């Protein structure tokens, strides 16, 4: 997981972190995980998907994973398509790490973590993504307070068109802080 001393110029630490992944690949490391953080200055990668896409172009063996995608912060349709596209680009070198997000990250996104809303949204988004990767029946869905629709495909113009490279989906890992964490229950 790339860590930064706060205050470094982004162009410098991004290039340093990408080079570090290249070196790990050259040394034969099996995997590297890239976290999603929007308010943590020592882990400042806001989009692990963009970082991983760049790292895939520089490496040939190492598996790369989101460490984690903070599910409550993403719309299921958009996340399903982005992760499927990334898995296609990785051609089998992608792990999908998922989590509920930290307290401060949730607050920035307007999610009430004190009520457990972030855990409920975690489950809704995960269920929504996995359903979209299968063959979902058209109809209304919801993510939190946001309704969305799985539309009737009108080939070749519309429909859920991106499926993961690894079937039925990339390996999924769930982040947790302690052995008794609610995230362990969610993973089960």
Key structural traits:
188 residues, alpha/beta, TIM Barrel, four-stranded parallel β-sheet, two-stranded antiparallel ribbon, 6 helices, 6 strands, globular
Description:
The protein is of the alpha/beta class and 188 residues long. It has a single domain, classed as TIM Barrel (Alpha-Beta Barrel). 39% of the residues lie in helices and 16% in strands. Strand 4 and strand 5 form a beta hairpin.
How would you classify the helix and strand content by structural class?
alpha/beta
Question: Which fold name is given in CATH as the topology?
Answer: TIM Barrel
Number of strands: 6
Q: How many domains?
A: 1
Order of helices and strands: HEHEHEHHEEEH
- Beta content comes to 15-25%
Across the major sheet, the strand order is 1-2-3-6
CATH class designation: Alpha Beta
Low-confidence stretches: none
Total helical segments: 6
Shape: globular
CATH architecture: Alpha-Beta Barrel
- End-to-end Cα distance: 24 Å
The CATH superfamily name is Luciferase-like domain
Helix % is: 25-40%
What number is the mean pLDDT?
88
Note the main sheet.
4 strands, parallel
- Rg estimate, integer Å: 17 Å
Write the layout of secondary structure elements.
Layout: H1 10-27, E1 31-34, H2 48-58, E2 63-70, H3 76-90, E3 94-99, H4 103-108, H5 117-133, E4 139-143, E5 146-150, E6 172-174, H6 182-187
Parallel strand pairs: 1-2, 2-3, 3-6
Antiparallel strand pairs: 4-5
Helix pairs in contact: 1-2, 2-3, 3-5
């Amino acid at each position: 997981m790339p860590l930064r001393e706060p205050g470094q110029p982004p162009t410098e630490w991004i290039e340093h972190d990408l080079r570090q992944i290249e070196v790990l690949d050259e040394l034969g490391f099996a995997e590297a995980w890239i976290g999603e953080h929007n308010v943590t200055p020592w882990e400042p990668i806001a989009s692990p998907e963009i970082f991983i896409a760049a790292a895939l172009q520089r490496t040939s063996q190492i598996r790369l994973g989101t460490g984690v995608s903070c599910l409550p912060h993403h719309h299921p349709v958009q996340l399903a398509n982005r992760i499927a596209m990334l898995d296609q680009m990785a051609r089998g070198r992608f792990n999908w790490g998922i989590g509920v997000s930290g307290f401060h990250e949730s607050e920035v996104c307007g999610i009430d973590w004190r009520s457990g809303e972030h855990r409920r949204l975690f489950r809704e988004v995960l269920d929504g993504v996995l359903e979209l990767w299968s063959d979902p029946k058209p109809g209304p869905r919801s993510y939190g307070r946001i309704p969305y629709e799985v539309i009737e495909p009108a080939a070749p113009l519309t429909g859920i068109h991106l499926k993961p490279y690894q079937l039925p989906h990339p390996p999924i890992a769930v982040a947790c802080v302690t052995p008794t964490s609610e995230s362990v229950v969610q993973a089960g």
